[in-house]
Amino acid sequence: MTKAETLARRRQLLGHNLNIAYQNPIKIVRGSMQYLYDEEGREYLDAYNNVAHVGHCHPRVVQAGQQQMAVVNTNTRYLSDLINEYAANLTATLPERLNVCFFVNSGSEANELALRLARAHTRSKDLIVLDHAYHGNTNTLIEISPYKHNGPGGQGAPSWVHTVPLPDLYRGLYKSGDVEAAEKYAQHVNEVVAQVGAGHLCGFIAESMPSVGGQIFLPEDYLKKVHSLVRSAGGVCIADEVQTGYGRIGKHFWGFEKYNVVPDIVVLGKPIGNGHPIGAVITTREIADSFNNGMEFFSTFGGNNVSCAIGIAVLETVLEEKLQKHAESVGSHMLQQLRELMTRFKLIGDVRGSGLFFGVELVRDRNTQEPATEEAASVVNQMREEGILLGTDGPFHNVLKIRPPMPFTDSDGDRLVETMAGILGSQISDLRSQM
Ligand code: PMP
Question: I need a labelling partner for 428 at 20 to 30 A (CA). Which of 43, 226, 279, 289 fits?
Fold first, then answer.
């Protein structure tokens, strides 16, 4: 089918609130490592898809899935060495107290389960969330995701959800020059804790680097302070590592490690299956035991043999190909180059990044920080025409979001930055002069 026919058929058959990326949609028919290919064989450098963590269709992962599919694929009610091996390998990457795994099929399911665990352990429901956060697509997760319930079509937060300001040191309430920013942001959590009352708090959930919020890095001591406040009120701390785990941020394997904290529950999704739907929740034995209240927990597909074989292969690939170190090296080179771009183009208000996780925030005026939303969309669409795939995010959709598959190289990064410089230098100044 031609691209136009595929689009028409999709419009007829699928829900219309499934977004399509780019003004000029792309029909992808094949992928290989950090590249995607359309129906005409055109190659795109994928600088956006953090799901294909070890690379699109990585041969080792493909082989693991194919082999296990031909042997058996059944559920967790039968004994299997695969699930035990996967759980052992996963927990070996985590701090010692996080040593019990549950497997599901998506990040949303994993966050849902994390909430069930937290509620069972604390016997409370009140939850603290960061503004602009996104944790998944179910009813309850929309309720804890301000990005959704305060956005188009949303109906606000229920009374048990307490939203605190996003600790964004560039655009937030307290900025990077403020040495007390961490304390001031944590004070908002303290206020909720006081309002809810000790013994009535379920917990706190946050991404270790809020991604939908705009690729945000938290103030250094923020999580430490928040975890201490939440625990002193009897709550548990949940780290949503769906976007930030598995070595992506380079220096650390897990996002929370950057802040020297150990959460009580860790939620995993996207990259751990490299495109195969796997979600996981890892917690302490104590919390897992609270959840073991007589009601069976069962997921038909969660932890099936094929998923475990794939999950094992992905993790082994991350470790054996030393992708964390690779992300650190390629990422620091690219961060330097993006910062250099900022000295040349006033449109760039802020550049932040760690490993292969970057945000480039576009503003019309560096003083007022007026979000350059249309310009960001224009850059992304121009980049797509040049064969490089990026996205935007943040409350104003003015943050260029760069999170490529981990095999992304220095020369891929050079190409991305050079292409972006060309676009910022020409098309965007044209666009600005038309406004
Ligand atoms: N948590 C975070 C931080 C996410 O970014 C996402 C997906 N974008 C989810 C949870 C939900 O994951 P899924 O789409 O696999 O259900």
Answer: 43
What whole-number percentage of the chain has pLDDT above 70?
98
- Return the percent helix, strand and coil in the chain, to nearest 5: 40, 15, 40
Give the rounded percent of residues in the chain with a pLDDT score beyond 90. Answer: 97
Mean pLDDT for the chain overall: 97
Q: Is the pLDDT of residue 433 over 70?
A: no
Q: How far, in Å, from the CA of 134 to the mean position of ligand 1?
A: 7
CATH number for the domain whose boundaries are 3-54+322-434: 3.90.1150.10
CA dihedral 23, 388, 218, 110 (to 10 degrees): 80
Distance CA 222, CA 226 (A): 6
Q: pLDDT tens for residues 286-326? A: 999 999 999 999 999 999 999 999 999 999 999 999 999 99
Is the pLDDT score of 262 beyond 80? Answer: yes
pLDDT of res. 10: 97
* Ranges of each domain in the chain: 3-54+322-434, 59-320
Ligand 1 centroid, distance to 432 Cα (angstroms): 34
Q: How far is CA 249 from the centre of its chain?
A: 11
Q: Is the pLDDT of residue 20 over 70?
A: yes
Domains 3-54+322-434 and 59-320 alike in fold: no
Nearest alpha-carbon partner for 401 in 334, 352, 337: 352
DSSP string, 146-202: HHHHTSTT-----TTEEEE----TTTSSS-TT-TTHHHHHHHHHHHHHHHH-TT-EE
The residues, ordered by sequence, that sit 6+ positions from 76 with a Cβ below 8 Å of its Cβ are: 83, 103, 298, 299, 302, 303, 304
Question: Ligand 1: which of 109, 134, 139 to mutate, judged by most atoms within 8 Å of the beta carbon?
Answer: 134
**SS3 readout for 374-394:** HHHHHHHHHHHHCCEECEEEC
Pocket of ligand 1 (CB under 6 A): 106-108, 111, 134-137, 207, 211, 240, 242-243, 269
| pLDDT greater than 90 at residue 429 | no
For range 211-237, the mean pLDDT:
97
